Amino acid sequence: MEDNEDFRFYLKDNLKAYYHVEDASNWKEGWEKVKKMHPELVVSDIMMPVMNGIES
């Protein structure tokens, strides 16, 4: 979960060869994906609008 579009693209582009990658631009959107997919790992920015990675 990353609100910076450029960095989100960078992470996804570099990880997609090794992992199934889903992205989200905010915690609310990301949390909905987490509830549906039950991933083993979540990478989250700690400073985002709506709810940040620390509050989660």
From TrEMBL:
Pfam families the record matches: Response_reg
Keywords tagged on the record: Phosphoprotein
InterPro entries, per database record: CheY-like_superfamily, Sig_transdc_resp-reg_receiver
Residue ranges annotated for the Response regulatory domain, each copy included: 1-56
Residue numbers of 4-aspartylphosphate PTMs: 45
GO MF term (any one): phosphorelay sensor kinase activity
Keyword Transcription regulation part of the UniProt annotation: no
Signal peptide per UniProt: none
Name assigned to this protein: Response regulator
